[in-house]
Amino acid sequence: MATPKVPEVRDIMRIERIGAHSHIRGLGLDDALEPRQVSQGMVGQLASRRAAGVILEMIKDGHIAGRAVLIAGQPGTGKTAIAMGIAQSLGADTPFTALAGSEIFSLEMSKTEALSQAFRKAIGVRIKEETEIIEGEVVEIQIDRPATGTGAKVGKLTLKTTEMETIYDLGNKMIDSLSKEKVQAGDVITIDKATGKISKLGRSFTRARDYDAMGAQTQFVQCPEGELQKRKEVVHTVSLHEIDVINSRTQGFLALFSGDTGEIKSEVREQINAKVCEWREEGKAEIIPGVLFIDEVHMLDMECFSFLNRALESDLSPVLIMATNRGITRIRGTNYQSPHGIPIDLLDRLLIIATSPYTEKETRQILKIRCEEEDVELSEEAHTVLTRIGMETSLRYAIQLISTAGLVCRKRKGTEVQVEDIKRVYSLFLDEARSSQYMKEYQDSFLFNETQTATMDTS
Amino acid sequence: MAVQSWRDSLKSSKKTALIHDGKRKIHYLFADGKEMAEEYDLKTDELIARRWRHKSTLGAQGQWQVEVGEPLPTPVASFECDAIQENCSNPVFMRKDTKSSFQWRIRNLPYSKDVFSVCVEPSERCIIIKTSNKKYYKKFNIPDLDRSRLPFDCSALSFTHANNTLIVSYKKPEEILTLEQELLKVIKKVKDTAGPDGDCKTQ
Questions:
Q1: B62: Cβ–Cβ under 8 A, 6 or more apart, which residues?
Q2: Could you tell me the CATH number of the domain that includes residue A108?
Q3: What keyword terms does UniProt attach to this protein (chain A) (predicted)?
Q4: Do A294 and A99 form a contact (C-beta atoms < 8 A)?
Q5: Which residue among A56, A57, A100, B44 sits deepest, i.e. has the most Cβ atoms within 10 Å of its Cβ?
C-alpha cells in the first residue's frame, strides 16, 4: 500500500462549548486605538474600550509594573467582556490569570497565599531550556483502528534522515495529534519528546515531483541530516508560580500534576526571585509581566486589600485588572462604607474605567452576535421582540432566551425563531423582575416566609 | 592538569556506598548538585553501570541518564505510552566497558559487517558509526575522555560484528587506567553505610 491512509479528522475535532464570552475575540480597536462600533464581538462601550486599549499598550510594553485598573459598571455592561478582550489581544505568550474574588477563600490556603500565587502566575519568564526532539522525514505512517470502533488505536511511524531510519510506536495521543496535523508520508516533522508537540516543517524535496494536490503555501525543505534525535535549545515561557512549585521541596516536580500545591515558603520565593534576576542580568531569561484579572473584586476583604497595596509596589508585580458592579457599599471585613467596596487608599492607586448601560441599538447588535455564536436563526420580528425584552429586563436574560427559543423552534421543526417561540420561552422562564413580583404576591404560601427586607450581606 | 581536576572533584564529592545483589553501589554527590551512581561487580571489580542525574535549569530533578550499562526500564510505562516510543525492533545502543577498553554494543543490527564504518572525529571529540544502507547512524562522545580532557586517538578504535550485534571498542589510555585503579581503592574504603531500608548489616 503506497498511498498513505487518509486520516479521519472528525473524531478528534473538539467541539468547543459556547461560553458566556466566547464571542469575544479582542477589543475591536483599529491601529490608532480608535474603537470600531462593532468589531471582534465587541459592541458599544467606546470610551471604556479605548481606555482598555491604552492599558493594553502599556502591558505589551512591559516596562511598567504594579499598575492597577478597575472596571466599574452596572451588571451586564460588558466588564468581563472587556477583560476577556484584553486577554485575547495579548496573545498566548503573555500570561493572563483570571480569578473571581471569592476564589481566594479556602480552608487549605490563607487568603494572602492564594493572592500571591495568583500574582506569580501572572508573571512569565521566557527561558531557554534544552529538550530532546525527533526531527525527520516521514517514510510511512500506519494507524490501525480496532474494528469495533472503540478501544486503543495502534500506530507505527517510520522516520528517516539522510543517514538513518527508525520505527516508532505511537500512543493514542500521538495518533490524534498526527492526524490533526494531517501528517503524511513525505512531510518533514519535528516532535518534542517531552511534550509530544508536533510541528510540520514542510515537505521533503524528494517528493516535489509527486503528483499531488497541494496548497500554494506548501514549503519544500531538505531531508534532515545526521541523527534523528537531537538536543535542541528551545525558548518557552513558564510562570514564576510554576518555578516556585518545581523548587518547593515537599513534592518536587510532580506537584504540578497533582494540582495540590499547598503553601509555598517565602524563602523559596525569595530564592527564585534572586535566581530570576540573576538570569535576567546574564541575558539567559526575560521577564514578561502579564495580567492578573480579579472579577467581583468587592468580595475581597480588608486584609486582601492591604496585601494588594503592598504587592503592587514590588517590581515583580503584574498589571492588575479588577472588575466590580457595586456602588457605595461596605468594605468586607470592616464597618466602613466606600465606593465599590474598595478602601480609598487602594482606590487612589487605581485607574478607573467605567462602563455604561447599552442603548437599544447596541443591545440589538449584541443579540445578533450571540445568535450567530449559538447558531440560532432569528426572524426580524423576533429580533425586535427580544431586543425589547433585553432593554426591559436584562441583557443576560435576553441572551438566555436565545438558546431556549432555538430549542423550542427546533422542536416544532421550524428553521427560524419566530415571535411565538420567544413568547413561549418568555412565559416558561421568569426574569428577575417577574420572579420578585411573583414572590411578593405569593409570599404567604412559601416556606420560611418571615422575610426581613433583605439587604445583601457580604461578610 | 585536567585529569587532576576531575580526580579532585571525585575525591571531594560526597560518597555513599552500599553492597547489594553482589554489586558494590556507590552514589556520588558533587559540589555543583550533580549526582553520579556507579555499580561494580564485587568479584571482578568491573564497572557494570554508571548513571548521571542533573538538575534542569528551572531546578527540577531530572531523570537518571545512563552512561554505562543497561538502559533503565521506562519508569512509568502507562504515563509514557500515550506519546511516542521507539519500536523494540530498533537498534539498541548501550555501553559496557571491559577492564582495558571502553566498549559499546549495538544490538538488533541485522546487516553484514561491510555495511558499517566506524571512525573517530577528533575535532568534534566523538565517534561516528555510519551504515552504507542508511539504516543506522550514531554520533557519540566518550564522557570519560571529556571529563579528563584527554585527546582522541584513531588507532585505539576497533569494531566487530556478530550475532546481529555491532561491538565497538576503544582502548583506554594509560591515564584513565591509573585513575580507575585509584578510584577503586578509594571506594573500597568507603564505609558500607547501612541504608534506611536495612539492606546491609551493621558490622
A1: B53, B54, B55, B56
A2: 3.40.50.300
A3: ATP-binding, DNA damage, DNA recombination, DNA repair, Helicase, Hydrolase, Nucleotide-binding, Nucleus, Transcription, Transcription regulation
A4: yes
A5: A56
The reply to whether residue B58 touches residue A170, judged by beta carbons under 8 angstroms, is no
CA distance A173 to chain B (A): 5
Inter-residue contact A240 to A125 (CB < 8 Å):
yes
User: Which of A301, A331, A354 is at the close of a domain?
Assistant: A354
Min Cα distance A62 → chain B (Å) is: 23
Domain assignment of residue A257, yes or no? no
- CA gap A66, B55 in Å, rounded: 32
The whole-chain average pLDDT of chain A stands at 83
Give the separation between CA A121 and CA A240, rounded to whole angstroms: 6
Task: Determine the average pLDDT of the residues in B151-160.
Answer: 88
A118: which residues sit within 8 A by CB, 6+ positions away?
A: A97, A99, A104, A292, A294
Residue B53 in domain: yes
CA distances from A349 to A69, A70, B107 (A): 9, 10, 68
In a domain, A9, yes or no: no
Domain count along chain A = 3
Would you place residue B75 in the very low, low, confident or very high pLDDT band (cuts 50, 70, 90)?
low
Q: Taking CB atoms and an 8 Å limit, are A164 and B60 in contact across chains?
A: no
ipTM, 2 dp = 0.79
B80: nearest CA in chain A? A171
Residue-level pLDDT at A5:
46
CATH number at residue A373: 1.10.8.60
Q: List chain A residues with CB under 8 Å of B89.
A: 167
Q: Which of A162, A163, A174 sits opposite B84 (nearest CB)?
A: A174
Asked which of A313, A339, A354 is the last residue of a domain, the reply is A354
Query: Residue A405 has what pLDDT?
Result: 92
Cβ contact A174–B138 (<8 Å): no
Q: How confident is the model at residue A8 (pLDDT cuts 50, 70, 90)?
A: very low
Mapping DSSP onto H, E and C, the string for B168-197 reads EEEECCHHHHHHHHHHHHHHHHCCECCCCC
pLDDT digits (tens, 9 = 90+) for A238-271: 899 988 888 875 544 554 555 555 678 888 888 8
Q: Measure CB to CB from residue B89 to each of A167, A226, A246 and give the nearest one.
A: A167
Q: Is the pTM of this model over 0.80?
A: no
Q: Is B133 on the interface with A (CB under 8 A)?
A: no
- The reply to whether A279 falls in a domain is yes
Contact flag A167-B90 (C-beta cutoff 8 Å): yes
Q: What is the 3-state secondary structure (H, E, C) of chain B?
A: CHHHHHHHHHHHCEEEEEEECCEEEEEEECCCCCEEEEEEECCCCCEEEEEEECECCCCCECCCEEEEECCCCCCCHHHHCCCEEECCCCCEEEECCCCCEEEEEEECCCCCHHHEEEEEECCCCEEEEEECCCCCEEEECCHHHHHHCCCCCHHHEEEEEECCEEEEEEECCHHHHHHHHHHHHHHHHCCECCCCCCCCCCC
Whether B198 maps to a domain, the answer reads no
| Residue B83 to residue A196, Cβ atoms within 8 A | yes
pLDDT reading at B79 higher than 50: no
Closest CB from A191, A226, A238 relative to B58: A238
Q: Which domain holds residue A57?
A: 38-126+244-251+266-354
pLDDT tens-digit map of A202-236: 888 887 776 666 666 678 888 888 888 888 888 88
Give the max Cα distance, chain A.
Answer: 86
Domain-located, residue A455: no
Which chain A residues have a beta carbon less than 8 Å from that of B61?
252-253
